[in-house]
Amino acid sequence: MSEKYNVFLISDSTGETLDRIFLSLKSQFANFEYNKKEYVFIRTEQQIDKIISECVNFDNTIILYTIVETKLAKYLSLKTDENKIPCFGILGNLILTFSKLLNQKASHKPSAQHVLDEDYYKRIEAIQFTMSHDDGKKTEDLDQSDIILLGVSRTGKTPTSIYLSNRGYKTMNIPLVMNQEIPNRLKTKEIKPCIVGLYTDAERLSDIRRNRVALMKDANLPTYTDLDSIKKEVEDSKSLFKKYSWPTIDVTRKSIEETAAAIIKIYDIKKNK
Q1: Which residues have C-beta within 8 Å of that of residue 56, sequence separation ≥ 6?
Q2: Residue range of the domain that includes 107
Q3: Across residues 53-75, what is the average pLDDT?
């Protein structure tokens, strides 16, 4: 049986960057068992002292941190050395290397990525647009979108749209429903947004829908979960995508992040044509 580790994540900001890096890191180790504790907005030596006093009460402790202020980062390193606690700075060497490469002095300002600049307001606008154009709402605004996602029910359109909006893309998603026409505007070659079709394996989709129906406690949806009906839905959607030459993504075994990355790649190709 593998040992269990106590991982302390220390950030001088919201901790979002560090948390994502840790998620990527731990995914590389199948037998990594751990307890995680997060500390955010850590900006004083007194706060560091308090965290260290907690760390020493645990075995197998590991500290990961994102602290950009040099003096505080050195203080944390000193205290962990004194207490023989493994400690790893995520951004320190990277900032130093970039500083040398760019021949610029880094600001070492916490939360610098959260400034209220043009990109920030662009993301907010994209999120608001995406939330108000979910699941086929306000299709008259098609041309205001950056990206339009199409797919049958439960192909991950909504969560992927939300993820994309957080990256600054105004995203509309439109469900493909049997015997219902798509908006005529989508059929024209002049449409500007990047249109992407999402599809998935019929059997997997059937399982997902059955689980959803069970949660909804609604037994009056026989065709929604019927495998033969789902197969036809999926094939019809793929035929539609092919008819209008829309790029497609098989989301069967893809995470939301992987699907979004593929969509952004398609968007960039279209934009740069």
Answers
A1: 83, 85
A2: 4-114
A3: 93
Q: For residues 166 and 59, state if they share a domain.
A: no
What residue spans of 6-57 are helical by DSSP H? 16-26, 45-55
The pLDDT value given to residue 175: 96
Q: Would strands 61-66 and 194-199 be described as parallel, antiparallel, or unpaired?
A: unpaired
Tell me: do 110 and 123 sit in the same domain: no
Residues 140 and 181 in one domain: yes
Angle at 115 between CA 113 and CA 118, to 5 degrees: 105
Side-chain-facing half-sphere of 198: CA atoms under 13 Å: 31
Structure tokens at 17: 């960057």
Q: What does the pLDDT read at residue 30?
A: 82
C-beta of residue 238 within 8 angstroms of C-beta of residue 245: no
Cut 0.85: pTM above it: no
Q: Which two tokens stand for residue 163?
A: 């993820």
pLDDT tens digit sequence for 154-207: 999 999 999 999 989 999 999 999 889 999 999 998 888 999 999 999 999 988
Buried b (16+ CB within 10 A) or exposed e, 188-207: eeebebbbbbbbbebeebbe
Nearest to 153 by CA among 183, 182, 177, 186: 177
